[in-house]
């Protein structure tokens, strides 16, 4: 399970970084989204991987039978912020495309 | 009760929301509200300084969820000083922007106050994830302020800036969650305690997490090689926005200073002195390349951006020595350079408005219509920025050089600071001759295109210059204060004791101890 999650995060980060380094806004935004998914999964994994465990401590129940609720709360915050940021950069990219006439990041091309 | 600590967060937030509700046609009300709130923030900032003067550290647990379980806001000498600095810059910039710059687009005051909220929050929070949230608030406000009033140049710079900072935010999350994974806490004071107790088996992952975090802070503080974004962004922004952005980079400096003294200080065991070996040489290189950039700039705005990079390099190099005297000198210089650079950006807009098609290009163009007023302000700014006596730039550099004299890197510090000061002087004299001294006469046809600087527009500029002069004149008491700030920073136990108070009520289940040890 750990190996699977770890390699999934690694693949997401690799794809995200590759796309972020592209020259056009659309792949870059997709890359940023992948990268933020990877970060969210990573946060989740820092609370240990458990399944079907309650996030509530009980006396007499060992700590291994307990899911850490904090990383989940952190992910929620990170998702909300990441969602807002993605929406913002999408709007910015679209208005950039309209205004600059190109979706090239350095606006180096002739306009359409 | 210490509820007053949240005033610098609540006040801008409520003002921003109120400004958003007032229609754009009633901008006078927005201005009054925004200025009044900024003035109140200045008062709060200095109240905080007076409260923390004695060395006491105040901590307020939000919603009475005591540390380390809830989020705390903490004000110590450093935080108080940074909040006061932010409030002064914000007030002067707002006074300037209220002369017309805030009408070029909607929601200026709303965005401005949110920017101030994010900056103050980042200075006050005692929780590292909350620091991330405040970073996002100040970034989102800065994205909007950067593209404020539109234009191709701003959009292009804006897209670059947003992408870069989104990558930075994702890295921030990775760094913070790595630290959470091994320490089991997000409270910075508690994290300091936990990091000190870590065994060597956790060293590698701790260092990885800490250095990822440092990359993010270095991006904010424009440390080499992560400074390339700064000149483009700062030169694209409108003048009041760029002036406020002068504080923005200081958030990165603050975060580096706070984490590297509190969490990764000398007492941190396996996490001790993680960034010191990188910070000092990188900061000196930043200073060098920043000044070379300033020399090579063709536009005043670009040059100011590079001067900011150089000043950040100077203060980070001094912080990188991690002695009481060197941090104190860096803090003295930090206040000076923030005010000075904010003033420079405002001045450039006034100068550009009188040069017609030449705007802020550094070449001989139209003669200024008000050469005495603008020239004198420029003279003050340039003397302060180049580090010539009697202004605070000189005193700050002197303090840092004195602090470095017996340190291992002292030679390099002296060599680079003195050499780059010469470069800065050359760059600024070139501006002085080409923009202010020489110039072609302005005839009647041109005179219509010239925008005169009104007394109300000049007032904030003169005010910042007067503050800088007073700051130099009262360097004695100020450096005594920054000495105390540095001493408090280098004794993180004070901060930890102030934050980690025993909760007034806590059911004695023994579970908090179990939780604490869950990973060990």
Automatic annotation (TrEMBL), chain A:
The chain crosses the membrane at residues 26-44, 73-98. Its main location: membrane. It is a multi-pass membrane protein. Coiled coil: none annotated. It is found in: Cell membrane. Keywords: Cell membrane, Membrane, Transmembrane, Transmembrane helix. One of its GO terms (cellular component) is plasma membrane. The keyword Coiled coil does not apply. The keyword Secreted does not apply. Belongs to the CPA3 antiporters (TC 2.A.63) subunit C family. This is Na+/H+ antiporter subunit C. It comes from Lujinxingia vulgaris.
UniProtKB/TrEMBL annotation, chain B:
Residues 127-423 form the NADH:quinone oxidoreductase/Mrp antiporter transmembrane domain. GO terms for cellular component: plasma membrane. It is a multi-pass membrane protein. Keywords: Cell membrane, Membrane, Transmembrane, Transmembrane helix. It is found in: Cell membrane; Membrane. GO terms for biological process: ATP synthesis coupled electron transport. One of its GO terms (molecular function) is NADH dehydrogenase (ubiquinone) activity. Its main location: membrane. It holds the Pfam family Proton_antipo_M. The chain crosses the membrane at residues 6-25, 32-49, 69-95, 107-125, 131-149, 161-184, 204-230, 237-257, 277-296, 303-323, 329-348, 373-391, 411-433, 454-474. The keyword Cell membrane applies. NCBIfam families: PRK12666.1. Belongs to the CPA3 antiporters (TC 2.A.63) subunit D family. PANTHER family: NA(+)_H(+) ANTIPORTER SUBUNIT D1, NADH DEHYDROGENASE. This is Monovalent cation/H+ antiporter subunit D.
């Amino acid at each position: 399970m750990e190996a699977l999650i770890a390699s999934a995060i690694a693949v997401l980060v690799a794809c995200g970084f590759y796309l972020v380094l592209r020259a056009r806004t659309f792949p870059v935004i997709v890359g940023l989204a992948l990268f933020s998914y990877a970060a969210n999964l990573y946060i989740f994994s820092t609370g240990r991987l458990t399944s079907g465990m309650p996030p509530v401590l009980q006396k007499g129940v060992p700590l291994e039978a307990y899911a850490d609720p904090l990383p989940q709360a952190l992910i929620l915050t990170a998702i909300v912020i990441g969602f807002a940021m993605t929406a913002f950069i999408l709007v910015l990219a679209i208005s950039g495309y309209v205004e600059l006439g190109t979706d090239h990041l350095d606006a180096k091309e002739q306009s359409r | 009760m210490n509820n007053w600590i949240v005033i610098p967060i609540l006040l801008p937030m409520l003002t921003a929301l109120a400004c958003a509700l007032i229609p754009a046609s009633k901008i006078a009300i927005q201005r009054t509200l925004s200025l009044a709130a900024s003035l109140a923030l200045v008062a709060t900032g200095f109240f905080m300084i007076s409260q923390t003067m004695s060395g006491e550290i105040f901590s307020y647990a939000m919603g009475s969820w005591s540390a380390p379980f809830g989020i705390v806001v903490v004000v110590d000498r450093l935080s108080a000083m940074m909040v006061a600095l932010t409030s002064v810059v914000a007030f002067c910039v707002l006074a300037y922007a209220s002369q017309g710059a805030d009408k070029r687009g909607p929601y200026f005051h709303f965005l401005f106050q949110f920017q101030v909220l994010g900056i103050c929050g980042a200075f006050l929070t005692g929780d590292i994830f909350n620091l991330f949230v405040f970073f996002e608030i100040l970034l989102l406000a800065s994205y909007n302020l950067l593209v404020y009033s539109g234009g191709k140049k701003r959009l292009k710079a804006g897209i670059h800036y947003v992408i870069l900072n989104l990558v930075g935010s994702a890295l921030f999350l990775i760094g913070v969650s790595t630290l959470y994974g091994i320490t089991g806490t997000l409270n910075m004071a508690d994290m300091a305690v936990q990091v000190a107790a870590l065994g060597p088996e956790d060293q590698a992952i701790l260092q990885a997490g800490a250095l990822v975090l440092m990359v993010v802070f270095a991006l904010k503080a424009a440390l080499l090689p992560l400074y390339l974004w700064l000149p483009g962004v700062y030169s694209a922004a409108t003048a009041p926005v760029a002036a406020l952005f002068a504080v923005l980079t200081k958030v990165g400096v603050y975060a580096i200073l706070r984490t590297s003294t509190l969490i990764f200080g000398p007492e941190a065991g396996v996490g001790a002195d993680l960034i010191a070996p990188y910070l000092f040489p990188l900061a000196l290189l930043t200073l060098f390349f920043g000044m070379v950039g300033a020399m090579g700039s063709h536009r005043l705005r670009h040059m100011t951006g590079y001067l900011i990079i150089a000043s950040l390099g100077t203060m980070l190099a001094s912080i990188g020595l991690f002695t009481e005297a060197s941090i104190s000198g860096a803090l003295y210089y930090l206040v000076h350079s923030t005010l000075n650079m904010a003033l420079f950006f405002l001045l450039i807009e006034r100068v550009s408005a009188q040069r017609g098609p030449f705007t802020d290009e550094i070449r001989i163009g139209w003669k200024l219509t008000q050469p005495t007023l603008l020239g004198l302000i420029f003279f003050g700014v340039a003397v302060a920025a180049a580090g010539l006596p009697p202004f605070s730039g000189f005193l700050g550099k002197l303090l840092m050089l004195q602090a470095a004299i017996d340190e291992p890197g002292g030679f390099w510090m002296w060599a680079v600071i003195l050499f780059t000061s010469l470069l800065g002087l050359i760059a600024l004299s070139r501006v002085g001759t080409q923009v202010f001294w020489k110039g072609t006469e302005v005839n009647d046809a041109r005179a219509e295109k010239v925008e005169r600087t009104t007394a109300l527009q000049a007032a904030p500029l003169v005010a910042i210059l007067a503050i800088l002069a007073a700051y130099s004149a009262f360097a004695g008491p100020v450096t005594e204060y920054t000495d105390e700030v540095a001493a408090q920073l280098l004794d993180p136990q004070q901060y930890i004791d102030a934050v980690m108070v025993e909760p007034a009520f806590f059911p004695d289940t023994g579970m908090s101890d179990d939780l604490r040890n869950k990973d060990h």
